[in-house]
Structures are given as C-alpha cells and as structure tokens.
Write a structure and sequence with these properties.
about 40% strand, 1 helix, single chain, alpha+beta, about 60 residues, 4-stranded antiparallel β-sheet
Length: about 60
C-alpha cells in the first residue's frame, strides 16, 4: 500500500500553507473535514484531496462551481 497515496493540500490566498499524505482514503477524508474546521477561516482558504496514484482530485472545499 502506498503510504503517500492520498494528498491533502491547504492553500490560503493562492499560497500553499500545509500538506499531508495518507495511505488510507477514509483517514485522508477525515483529515479533510478536520482541516476545514481548523483552517477554513484563513483568507481564501482552499482544501484539496487528491489521489496521487490516479492523479484524480477527489474533493475540494469550497466546492468549485
């Protein structure tokens, strides 16, 4: 199992603030929700969860229109 498959990125005002990698998608999704709660009030905050193995963006916050 790839220990860095699920990549979580937090940006604020277009600049990277924090990154995290997890092997488990459920764990990464749990962290995604936690980061929104912890960091969602930063200016222009954006949280993105990507599957590094497939290159697919799994979810973003806030949702893009």
């Amino acid at each position: 199992m790839n220990s860095e498959r699920f990549h979580l990125t937090l940006t604020s005002a277009g600049r990277p603030v924090q990154h995290g990698w997890w092997a488990s998608e459920p764990t990464a999704r749990s962290k995604f929700v936690a980061w929104i709660g912890e960091w969602g009030d930063l200016p222009d905050a954006r949280v993105t969860l990507t599957d590094e193995e497939t290159g697919t963006t799994l979810t973003t916050w806030p949702e893009t229109p």
